[in-house]
Amino acid sequence: MNSLVSTTAIEAQSQAASEEVVRLTDVKRRFGTTSALDGISLTVKRGEILGIIGRSGAGKSTLIRCLNGLERADSGEILIEGRDITELSEQDLQPLRRRIGMIFQHFNLLSAKTVEENVALPLKIEGLAKGERLKRAHELLELVGLADKAKAYPASLSGGQKQRVGIARALTARPALLLSDEATSALDPETTRSILALLKDINRKLGLTILLITHEMEVVRGIADRVAVIDAGRIVEEGQVWSVFANPQAEITGSLLGGIRPQLPEHIAGRLSAAAGSEAILSVDLAGPQAQGALFAELSAALPHSFRLVHGGIDHIQNQPVARFFIAVPARDPALAGKVEQFLTARSARVEVLGYDTDHA
Ligand SMILES: Nc1ncnc2c1ncn2[C@@H]1O[C@H](COP(=O)(O)OP(=O)(O)OP(=O)(O)O)[C@@H](O)[C@H]1O
Ligand SMILES: [Mg+2]
């Protein structure tokens, strides 16, 4: 065997591992007859924000608890910065847990302690002197925009401010990974956006790796780089956020996306029939680099009066256009819907004939 080659291979392997903050391989956890985790494999790279989305009971919190060692997996490997935590004793887990910060839906602040004391608490556990602890706490309160609330008590803060304190506290021990379990679920939409913006800002400034667990697509859409969809303890779909939004493969993904993707208005959907011969209603999906052209202008030029726009729009996710439109194709020429479909499909759009609208005048 060529030793030079094998050394290089090992180096490459360990470099790849150091780029991965988290690697799960076939992780399983059962509760009685419930498979809460049914063979989960995923990786989170350094500096990345991975969103994990699933409906209630899908296994999200179990996954997070296995990651920070609060729950033991039945089988599988859980590597944090290359170390398998499934084999560690409770005592050996402690230093590794400090590499992981957590934020929660209900903030979990200590009400009898001030904001700065809450933020400094993880450092007290580490045995740092009080002056050092408070210095670090103030740096972090500055980072989350709450420097003026250092002496306040949690009860006097708004939900968004409490979560900022939670974020500061999670970062005091300089973790490699931030776990967020529904951290914005108790907040109104505007506050949610400001907390997500803060997380993105911290991700950029500190290169912090974030694993974001949520049941809201809006959260994933706002800041994640990649998304994994979990259902009944399994990852059913995974990919770059814009691409999963543009072309969801699993049924559950489609239904989780329902609220934030254009849908055919109900009064039209309700009167669609399978009877060809009336106006055809088509959905047109186009996304990413292929979506740059003037698709509908070209369609108009090639096939004049072949369609009218019914509904839809263009979103931008991760700087990529994600377009979804509904168009109606008149019935005057029975072959027209097919021609329109062919024209759009040839330009990388995904087209589906949803049905025929008999009632349209
Ligand atoms: N300690 C436990 N004992 C028994 N069953 C459990 C336990 N923890 C979780 N489960 C079950 O495992 C499944 C996954 O639960 P988990 O809490 O991970 O879901 P989740 O995705 O976080 O849901 P939610 O969005 O409602 O928080 C559920 O069926 C739940 O009832
Ligand atoms: Mg949960």
UniProtKB/TrEMBL annotation:
<keyword id="KW-0813">Transport</keyword>
<dbReference type="InterPro" id="IPR003439">
    <property type="entry name" value="ABC_transporter-like_ATP-bd"/>
</dbReference>
<dbReference type="InterPro" id="IPR050086">
    <property type="entry name" value="MetN_ABC_transporter-like"/>
</dbReference>
<dbReference type="GO" id="GO:0006865">
    <property type="term" value="P:amino acid transport"/>
</dbReference>
<keyword id="KW-0472">Membrane</keyword>
<dbReference type="InterPro" id="IPR018449">
    <property type="entry name" value="NIL_domain"/>
</dbReference>
<dbReference type="InterPro" id="IPR003593">
    <property type="entry name" value="AAA+_ATPase"/>
</dbReference>
<dbReference type="InterPro" id="IPR041701">
    <property type="entry name" value="MetN_ABC"/>
</dbReference>
<keyword id="KW-0029">Amino-acid transport</keyword>
<dbReference type="Pfam" id="PF09383">
    <property type="entry name" value="NIL"/>
</dbReference>
<keyword id="KW-1278">Translocase</keyword>
<dbReference type="InterPro" id="IPR027417">
    <property type="entry name" value="P-loop_NTPase"/>
</dbReference>
<dbReference type="InterPro" id="IPR045865">
    <property type="entry name" value="ACT-like_dom_sf"/>
</dbReference>
<comment type="function">
    <text>Part of the ABC transporter FtsEX involved in cellular division. Important for assembly or stability of the septal ring.</text>
</comment>
<keyword id="KW-1003">Cell membrane</keyword>
<keyword id="KW-0547">Nucleotide-binding</keyword>
<dbReference type="Pfam" id="PF00005">
    <property type="entry name" value="ABC_tran"/>
</dbReference>
<dbReference type="GO" id="GO:0016887">
    <property type="term" value="F:ATP hydrolysis activity"/>
</dbReference>
<protein>
    <recommendedName>
        <fullName>Cell division ATP-binding protein FtsE</fullName>
    </recommendedName>
</protein>
<dbReference type="GO" id="GO:0005524">
    <property type="term" value="F:ATP binding"/>
</dbReference>
<comment type="similarity">
    <text>Belongs to the ABC transporter superfamily.</text>
</comment>
<keyword id="KW-0067">ATP-binding</keyword>
<feature type="domain" description="ABC transporter">
    <location>
        <begin position="22"/>
        <end position="257"/>
    </location>
</feature>
<dbReference type="GO" id="GO:0005886">
    <property type="term" value="C:plasma membrane"/>
</dbReference>
<dbReference type="InterPro" id="IPR017871">
    <property type="entry name" value="ABC_transporter-like_CS"/>
</dbReference>
